[in-house]
Amino acid sequence: MSSDSDDDMPLARASAPVSKAHISKADDKAMDKAMDKAGMKSDNIPVGISVRNGPVLGDEMDVDPPITNGHAKRKSRGSTSKAVNYNVGSESEEDVPLAKRQRTAKKTVDSDSDDEPLAAKKSGKLPPKATETSYGQSSDDDEPLTHLAQKKASIEKKAEKEAKAIQAKDAKKGKKPIKKADSDEDVKPKNKRKAAATPTTKKANGVKKEESDSDAPLSKKVSAKKTNGKVKAETASPVKKGKGKKEESEDVEEVYRWWDAPKKEDDSVKWDTLQHNGVVFPPEYEPLPTNVKLLYDGIPLTLSTEAEEIAGFFGAMLNSTHNVENPTFQKNFFADFTDEVKKTGGAKDEDGNKVAIKDFEKLDFKPIFNYYDGKNQEKKARSAAEKKADKAEKDKIEAPYVHCIWDGRKEQVGNFRVEPPGLFRGRGEHPKTGKVKRRVTPEQITINIGKEATVPTPPEGHKWKNISHDNKATWLAMWQENINGAYKYVMLAAKSSIKGQSDHKKFEKARELKKHIARIRKDYNKELKAELMADRQRATAVYLIDKFALRAGNEKDSENEAETVGCCSLKFEHVTLSNDPHPNTVIFDFLGKDSIRFYQEVRVDTQVFKNLKLFKKSPKKDGDDIFDRLTTTQLNKHLTSYMPGLSAKVFRTYNASYTMSNLLKELKGSKNLSIQEKVKLYNDCNREVAILCNHKRTVGAGHEAQMEKMTDRIKGLHYQQWRIKHMMIDIDPKIKKKKPASFFELHEDLDEEWIHSHQAFLIEEQRTKIEKKFQKDNEKLVAEGKKEMKAKELTERLEVVTDLEKKFKKENKTKKVEAEGKGPSIEKCEANLKKLDERINTMRLQAEDREGNKEVALGTSKINYIDPRLTVVFAKKFDVPVEKFFSKTLREKFAWAIESLEDDEGDWEF
């Protein structure tokens, strides 16, 4: 190692292998020679596309109430479990817990590979290889990949050309380009990771919060730097709903179009007046009945109320085996539980003798679980009227907290409920999983409110920790939780003007990147061969962030936070270099944001492959940093030298939006296309964006079952058509001579066995509908104080099921179908056949869409990265209701995009 490298190396890293500070020409030539000898160089290969992919690293969709305040339930990935719905926008594909993901199989790596991929060290099988279906191609082998790589390269060239044109135009106007920072700054190797000094410096769940620093606790705030990002006036209002929808609320509120308002001179001031009613606390603990006890070695225990509540946390979740069977979860729970038992007088048996709790295995929580499970079953068994009454009561209690008055306008609060106590679960392999989340008291909560406003009254006998009047912050209440020392905030809802302005600013920043992308790409491609190791590592990192949407990554307190990784924090074992089956293949395998596994096999440029090989050069080994002379701070400082506010995440937004913009420009409107076909056209573009921008996911476990279900539904429509055609014979026997014999034949996908099965399904479906309707009608009568209907009424109603069963038996025997309905006619039958043809076509499109999207995260692209104004432009240009792309929740979230283009004729450009 060179002397200057040693001089720069901190003492903490003195014993760790660190890359040389400089790369000599001799080193470069030696590397080239080694790669040539191993047959590892190939300049004519498609790059920038995943060959094999795993879970997508998607941003959380900020649509539901923010998770700043309390534990959010993990959602299942709707796209893999629900049929495609053209009436509602796709939901966000949330990350599935790591334990539920496919494990990877041992993979034989070519001898040229530097090391074995992380996936090879685990049991199971690899994520699926990129298939023809997922890319919407029908070619063989690598042709779909080649086609997409070429298309991506074409779009990038177009972007660079456009950026140069914009720069030239700005130059004529006299705008000065931003002076670039010196490239040789901050070249020191990274420090070894250390635990954070205080809880306030840690990141919740190991994830860096992306909110403004105006939301930081008052005592910890530092002076914020001004940015040049364009932000609209910070005045809030209820957001106008999508077109064609009537206001559901009784009070019609004036809509404030913040996107049309003039910008404030000082956009750091978020509000002038603010009034709200604080937060809702969870109910107090209700002790267990005296006959329900925690058992220790078969002995019923009497515990203090505090210890009993903690035991109840564990007992109530015995059915969550993923947690309660986790050794770390058990260890942390047992430590906190026994501490509480000791603090509160210990555990006693029925005779009052103390019982020492020393062995977790001897604890039996089943009596507690059975009690809470019984309560849950009782709750589920409530009648519709009871559920409605309970909901009305709950809504009445929470009504004062749902909205705040922000600058005189009503705004919805995102999550006003204080998180209840319980057991911390965390994401991924969190070291603190199972620890007790303590009950939050008013004495821990700081209220942020206007000076002239009435401060919310705390619960009786309590007081607030502090009252703040910080009009540069957007939070309404804040406290510190006990697990990671993270601060929790009560913020406004996703549809609020503040959140809307944040989204708008994000996409405007991505639009601004258009002007600089050519210079950025030119610079990092040049610096891929830089002699200074720090510059070469930085250029390689920017390449990976631009091409493969990697996050920048942040250092973690590995003892207290889940070990998650981004580009700058990649370790030796996270990156595998291979030439099998494709040259210059890089395999990424690590835990990314929220501890979700990121697995991708990608093709890179030869120089990038060479650099990664250099960064992994011996004596580096597992646990050592690949980018040991680069930190996230240094990377972001470098990026802001091109454009204020530029960071790694802006590249993801820019690449997705710019790609979508180009794909939509290539489309030509057609009056002959149906609404469903136009929607599929949009989804095809969205899919291509997701692929080109590497927004991938593994195929859902229920995909095949869903496809089979959709196939059965299509078969059911064909069977319906067959019955209608034979009804036409019953109406007019002569029609048999007017139509070809094939017209009356059974569809090729149907057979007798399937028909009998489908008939049984239809009979059972009819029976279930009638029984549910009967039950609902009875509940309504009881709610109105009337008598219930007798069982005899249900029997009479079920006669239609018996008739249907007889009808099918007769049809199967005679092969004849009697005409149904009032005044059946040939014309009516033909009209019904046409309607069924349309439904079949729609469902086939849905099935094709679902099959094509099985490995692609459409929601990730559409919700988080594609400028919503592009979707609105498509809807206008092709005359498709925006409801086909955005659900009600998303229409509220993106109201600014929909309304700001209200008078646009589809000409807006990203």
Automatic annotation (TrEMBL):
Residues 1-248 are annotated as: Disordered. Residues 423-879 form the DNA topoisomerase I eukaryotic-type domain. GO terms for molecular function: DNA binding; DNA topoisomerase type I (single strand cut, ATP-independent) activity. Residues 791-853 form a coiled coil. Pfam families: Topo_C_assoc, Topoisom_I, Topoisom_I_N. It comes from the Eukaryota. This is DNA topoisomerase I. It comes from Lachnellula hyalina.
